[in-house]
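Appendix B. Chain record.
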Amino acid sequence: VRMAGLFSDEQKQKMENLDHEFTLERVDENHWNFMQVYSTKFKHKKKIRQPGEPLYSTFEFMHQGTKQNLEFIISASNSDISNIEMEIDHYKKIELPITLKAGEIIKYSGGHQASVYNKNWQLIKTIEIDAKALSIEEGDHFLIIDCKFSNAKDDASLKIETRTLGQKQTISR
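Structure tokens predicted for this chain:
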């Protein structure tokens, strides 16, 4: 698309900002969907609390596109993590039946499977995901994250990056 000079001046100007990320989705041989990727990064830290106090973390993010599944990247930092639970908007619960060793990553980019990678982004395996529970509409959303930390070092955390796609702009040849 770039080599063919198909981006508009407005699209080129937006792409000059290195803080923004974009993606192209091929529709057919002569058409593509151009979308901005909205990425938000959060950190759920290992906490020590009084008995009965919640250990989960709550985050807020805004989705600026149409109805779609929330994409995410979760990484285990300075700890192994298991019993990973996510809850979207206080009612849609997602449990990830996996243990990530320190440095490992799980990435969900749509569909019914997520990929688990080692610290060098080499695929280890895939796991099933309840895609329906990750469906979100445009607007503000809450994300609750919890997990079990083991073999934890100082500053142990679960890092999560949420990813959503903005409005589609069709590009034609």
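Further analysis of this model is presented in Appendix C.
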